[in-house]
Design goal:
The protein is 45% helix and 23% strand. The chain is an alpha/beta fold. The radius of gyration is 23 Å and the shape is globular.
Length: 277
Amino acid sequence: MFRSIITFQKVYEYRSITKAAKELYVTQPSVSIQIKQLEKELGVTFFKRNGNKGLIPTENANRFYRDSQLLLNGWESSLNHLVKKRSNNRVRCTIGVSPMNAIYIIPHLIDSLENRNMLFDFEIVIQDSESILDSITKHELDFGLVERPFTSSDVEQLSFANDALVHAGDVNNPLWILGRPGSIQLEHTEKYFTENNIKPKKVLKVNDSNLISRLVTLGIGQSIVCKKSIENTIVPFQQLSQDYSIKYYLINAKIPNSKEIQNLIHLVRTLLPQLHF
């Protein structure tokens, strides 16, 4: 039953039997059989096919996914408790962090957590905000620090800090440095172009916000960057209106991967607003 539930969760998360089979290292027919057996045992239908768009979860699937998370998390917590009694094993926690959070926030948070001598082994993965959200909904990450809000029924979020954006660099330099498509940096830059009727003659596209700031501090081009990223430098900058800012968010699955992770997230939600960045 536990194996069938895990298979169901992967199909639900990927909306695809093919992708779930690849993730579980089993054949597609094996996945299909487990889903059909589970549906037969419970007397419900979990998925409807929608042509090339994959599987569509039914309301029963949505409900069972939430309930199955609670079931498996309870089972995992019980196993972790037994292991701890035998060998006092530490708990692994994987954190997804966006580039700006990786530089300015995560070091302070990890330092604060380590000072509490907690029984956690942390792993930090740097990704863009959208990838972090996707990994959290698939329970591949325990929580994340991102640079944009999300609307998701599976995720909780907390805004805990913000940073002003400025126009940095030599305004006479024709080169503008732009962030990756979909990034907050590019959204604000395009807004700035529109408001000031700017049509850049030369463009350098960079998919890492920290590298953008580094290039500007070296005198290469001009860009819209976080004010914090050019503090203690001699880079010229222009202050912008309050509309130009980045907010930082903590996001986590509404149903954490274990009781230990749930308690840790509760602590992190308390710590983050108190830390000085």
